[in-house]
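Lecture notes, unit on protein representations.

Consider one protein chain, 50 amino acids long.
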Amino acid sequence: MSRARISRLLTSSLIAAPLMAMVPVAFGATAQDIEHLRNLSVDQFRREAK
């Protein structure tokens, strides 16, 4: 990978991480809700994988 591509990916991930953290908070979700949703999606993924 070229240097420009790596730096672009790094920049976008640095921007995306805080946004991902802020979006659920903006919708009034608590950390517990977020964890619950994450667990649900993992369970669903496992079921579909079987």
